[in-house]
From TrEMBL:
Signal peptide boundaries: none
SUPFAM superfamilies the record matches: ALDH-like
Organism encoding this protein: Streptomyces stramineus
UniProt entry keywords in alphabetical sequence: Oxidoreductase
Pfam families, alphabetized: Aldedh (PF00171)
Residues in Aldehyde dehydrogenase domain copies: 13-484
Identification of the protein by name: Aldehyde dehydrogenase family protein
Source organism superkingdom: Bacteria
Length: 488
């Protein structure tokens, strides 16, 4: 018998008025559990609870806030054995990914912002002699810039890394003294719901962290439009992000938007065998890392003409070596995508590229696996930059390869989409790569690596988002600057 979950509001479970919807395992197509369908009244209840609790939490000693977040990190680790199977089942991620990069990363984010709660929130400014004016007498004027909590944060999260993404929003928000109302992605909200009781056990006061769920877009719309919400932090598609930004703008809510990406991996002609190997491995992560369901993925590989065939051959070899199948099997590298709708969407892009004259070098046909929403690792060549498959985010295990002649052409192609989240440059000359990075309209650039640095500001240019989080920048994202001025 599958479990049915309620909303987590004001420190306890609440049975939904409208009932539940099914959460489906992408690999087995079986029901994992049932999540609650929120009503406007339930969204309002969560916001009201957060509003009532926020003032007290904001005045809590930062050392106490740090202790709660540290304890939460411990609890995620302690409960990992029971959380991991649920998280794996609802996301369809491989068990290896779930156990090494989902729950441990979520725990580390709470631990990082436990330290963040203790970071100085006051920036002292040098005293300034000011002449008298009709407004006030002159004198030596002192001042400080102080980070204050925004208030109630609505956190709307993505389906690819649900717990990691929620931890990355809630932890810095809580560290700064905000209250949170979270709305996880409808496809896999169940493990996110488990964070509510764990935070209560960690010592978080009731009402400071609330979770509502819903399969309908109306749930998120109610949260965005509620006058008691001061800020919306959203991770998801650019199309939905634009709708949220428009709605939030009506009441001047603060927004933090991490939206889509169409990452370009530029392989320059001077790349040696070591650099080429790094490039192939980085681009291959589109297939091997959560079936390409990651916004930072280098889904376009742009290769200077002399190396094009060599890189394409390396990618073909890489893709054909990957094991597709049951994500619970430790030998599996490529599991399913999140849903039948997403599988069909990715397949339609591949079919469109074929119809436009592109050639499918690897994959391109549905794997002979049932049940499950599987997409084969696919490499598309003979692609032109104007094709939809080279311009739009697919969110699946598909790579397009495009040759270029000069750096100017590479920059033109890389910058030629509406996105600008994460690009990569591969070159034997890192100074050359550094200079090229300055020309890319992208919030993040990796040089000879797809590895991330946890303290860097993360976010995008253009339609890939607004604002930055990560490291101490996450504390800035969930705070307002207040200037305090006094007469010496």
């Amino acid at each position: 018998m599958t479990a049915s979950y309620g909303h987590w509001i004001d420190g306890s479970w609440h049975s939904p008025e409208k009932g539940h919807y099914a959460v489906v395992n992408p690999a087995t197509e079986e029901v994992v559990g049932e999540a609650a369908e929120a009503t406007p009244a339930e969204v309002a209840h969560a916001v009201t609870s957060a509003r009532a609790a926020q003032d007290g939490w904001s005045r809590t000693d930062p050392r106490r806030r740090a202790a709660v977040l540290n304890r939460m990190a411990d609890l995620i680790t302690e409960h990992g054995a029971e959380l991991a199977p649920l998280l794996q089942a609802e996301t369809g991620a491989t068990m290896r990914l779930t156990s090494t990069m989902q729950l441990p990363t979520a725990a580390e984010r709470f631990r990082r912002y436990a330290r963040g709660a203790l970071e100085p929130a006051v920036v002292p400014l040098a005293p300034c002699p000011v002449r008298g004016t009709p407004l006030a007498p002159g004198g030596l004027i002192g001042a400080a810039a102080v980070r204050r909590p925004v208030g109630v944060i609505g956190c709307i999260t993505s389906y690819n890394f649900p717990v990691v993404n929620l931890a990355g929003k809630a932890a810095p928000a809580l560290a700064m003294g905000n209250a949170v109302v979270a709305k996880p992605a409808p496809q896999d909200p169940l493990t996110c719901l488990a964070l509510g009781p764990l935070l209560r056990e960690a010592g978080l006061p009731d009402g400071v962290f609330n979770i509502i769920t819903g399969a309908s877009p109306a749930t998120g719309e109610e949260l965005v439009s509620h006058p008691g919400v001061d800020m919306i932090s959203f991770t998801g598609s650019t199309a939905v992000g634009k709708q949220i930004a428009e709605a939030a703008g009506r009441s001047m809510k603060r927004t933090l938007m991490e939206l889509g990406g169409k990452g370009a991996a530029i392989v320059l002609g001077d790349a040696d065998e070591k650099v080429i190997k790094s490039a192939v491995g980085a681009v291959g992560s589109v297939w091997a890392f959560h079936s390409g369901q990651i916004c930072t993925a280098p889904t376009r590989v742009l290769v200077q003409r002399p190396l094009y065939e060599q890189v394409v051959t390396g990618l073909q070899r890489y893709a054909r070596a990957l094991t597709i199948g049951d994500p619970v099997d430790n030998s599996t590298v490529v599991g399913p995508v999140i849903s039948a709708v997403q599988r069909d969407r990715v397949e339609s892009y591949v079919a469109g590229a074929r119809a436009q004259g592109a050639r499918i070098a690897v994959g391109g046909t549905r794997p002979d696996l049932a049940p499950g929403f599987y997409v084969a690792p696919t490499l598309i060549i003979d692609v032109t930059p104007d094709m939809a498959v080279a311009r739009e985010e697919l969110f699946g295990p598909v790579v397009v390869a495009i040759p270029f002649e000069s750096e100017d052409e590479a920059v033109h192609i890389a910058n030629g989409t509406s996105y600008g989240l994460y690009d990569y440059v591969f070159s034997a000359d890192t100074a050359r790569a550094w200079a090229l990075a300055a020309r890319l309209r992208s919030g993040n650039v990796g040089i000879n690596t797809a590895q991330r640095h946890p303290e860097t500001p993360f976010g995008g240019f253009k339609e890939s988002g607004v604002g930055r989080d990560g490291g101490s920048f996450g504390l800035h994202a969930y705070s307002e600057l207040q200037s305090v001025v006094w007469s010496s």
